């Protein structure tokens, strides 16, 4: 910059950027820590020493020799030391530096080298560290407009003074004096425009960095929440699987153990048979637990759901007949009716039908009373499959079913049905007993149109199927697994007593 100092407003791009509303405009740049303030103090001291040395050298050359030493000292202090607070009070520092620079230029009391560096840093700091963008813009605009007015006043005033730069002629369309003035203007525009532009760029860069850091923190928190939710969902799934695997077999083992205890003295053979049944159920429970634990230890699918070999296990709607036969063999007379055209169901839906039927029969066996019977119905509808398990439970345990207990059984059924987009109804029947009814919607690829006979209101035929032949289910027929399915000779319904509990296993 030349001796004639001035400034201008920033370039059009910088002015447009500073005026345009931006996301996060309310963001306030945080103050630096102690290290930042120490660096500012060091910068101020370095500039003070450099300015003092420069001023002494100028005085040696005969420049500024008429200025008193105390005046030069005060000027150096006012020009440089406020920079130690440039990030704490940037607007005030810029105003003080501008006034000191103007005084030095008007009265020729200071040097024009390091003082220009100090003024550049002061104006830059307003843009980079101003907490209020409006105040920062106003302060810089006042400084810039004042300097610009001063430069133009100099050019106009001194152009009329013939003894000012007399070696430069003033004639011609572009005289050397005019060229000299334009050089001064362009130099000052670059100088102050650069201080404005780089200060604004530093602020925007800091804001973008802060927003990026904030977004990074938010993403980390969201990832942690997602992981916690995944862990919670996995725990629920494991608990549901363990409940479904264990509850059924343990329930049967409890019934058989109670029966064995009652006949142990008078009929050791029947007691031994009951113990054999307990052993069989214990082995089955261990096998299913091993299957479950093996599936949990295996690598999960990309969606993080249950491994495919667990969903597509041997348990499905086709094994509901085995559940009914097992219930009949353990003292709970039960029938199975398959209504509609049986078809292959998706693995998740088929497994859910099986588990809901298993849980409902387990609860019936535990809480419905010794004289209760169960009725299981599987309905294949055009766009869904329905499962209904009802019983004729009577007595205190049946009346209080659902009143107390952990509620894990019903909760597990609700979760399983909801997981495949279905609905479930659970509650006592008006004429006694309890009913569980679940509806599982089928995908379009599995759903089928209503058979012609059913569409015309013609009832399907009914064929009896024993519990020992669950596979003989004719298409479109209603098939029953009779309550007369083979039962173990030890387990008589009249002999079975259950503790007063709930269906909510």
From TrEMBL:
Region annotated Disordered, chain positions: 1-25, 451-505
Enzyme Commission number: 2.7.13.3
Matching InterPro entries: DUF7134, HATPase_C_sf, HATPase_dom, His_kinase_dom, Sensor_HK_TwoCompSys, Sig_transdc_His_kin_sub3_dim/P
Reactions catalysed according to its record: ATP + protein L-histidine = ADP + protein N-phospho-L-histidine
Stretches with biased composition (Polar residues): 451-465, 496-505
GO CC annotation terms, alphabetical: membrane
A GO term, aspect molecular function: ATP binding
Descriptive protein name: histidine kinase
Keyword line: ATP-binding, Coiled coil, Kinase, Membrane, Nucleotide-binding, Phosphoprotein, Transferase, Transmembrane, Transmembrane helix, Two-component regulatory system
Organism of this sequence: Microterricola gilva
Keyword flag Transcription: no
Coiled coil: 209-236
Family matches, as Pfam families: DUF7134, HATPase_c, HisKA_3
